[in-house]
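From the methods appendix. Each design record in this collection lists the tokenized structure first, followed by the designed amino acid sequence. Records were kept in a plain field format so they could be parsed without special tools. The example shown here is representative of the layout used throughout.

RECORD:
FOLD TOKENS (175 positions):
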């Protein structure tokens, strides 16, 4: 009953002296949760969830990239059924000595409803000789922020020098 189907296609066309690339992708993955979601034993936590349903993740996405501008825009939509996640509960009790104790319990849960996820990514790179600066800005939203909390906006940057030593050794130095 487990399967993984993936497909993708890419079309590159010339556009005003630039080559613009359009990529389409889709996937469907139906897989049982990993071992540690199903069974776990430690000093403080212990569970046996051998009856968890398979998690079905469907994804469809598209990418538009410009090689001349070094710019890319990507949009992905996900639908996740039986999303498997860790849930934590806390409980406060008063001990026999009158002190307040807080207990923490973690267990595995599956969402009974489907979760939708939308991810939009904008990538831009700047290159001046050996100087390279790559940037990515990602917007993401989910239909259930309690079960799948995600940051709405994330940013990534990579700054480095790229050069060749003795005409054979590619070197990147940066942060």
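DESIGN:
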């Amino acid at each position: 009953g487990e399967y993984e189907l993936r497909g993708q296609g890419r079309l590159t066309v010339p556009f005003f002296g630039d080559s613009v690339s359009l990529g389409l992708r889709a996937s469907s993955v139906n897989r049982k949760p990993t071992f540690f979601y199903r069974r776990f034993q430690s000093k403080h936590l212990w569970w046996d969830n051998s009856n968890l349903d398979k998690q079905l993740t469907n994804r469809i996405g598209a990418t538009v990239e410009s090689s001349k501008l070094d710019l890319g825009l990507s949009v992905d939509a996900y639908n996740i059924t039986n999303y498997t996640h860790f849930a934590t509960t806390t409980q406060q009790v008063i001990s026999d000595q009158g002190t307040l104790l807080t207990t923490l319990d973690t267990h595995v849960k599956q969402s009974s409803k489907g979760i939708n996820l939308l991810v939009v990514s904008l990538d831009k790179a700047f290159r001046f000789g050996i100087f390279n600066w790559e940037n990515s800005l990602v917007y993401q939203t989910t239909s259930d922020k309690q079960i799948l909390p995600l940051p709405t906006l994330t940013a990534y940057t990579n700054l480095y020098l790229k050069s060749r030593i003795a005409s054979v050794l590619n070197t990147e130095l940066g942060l």
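APPENDIX NOTE: The mean pLDDT is 91.
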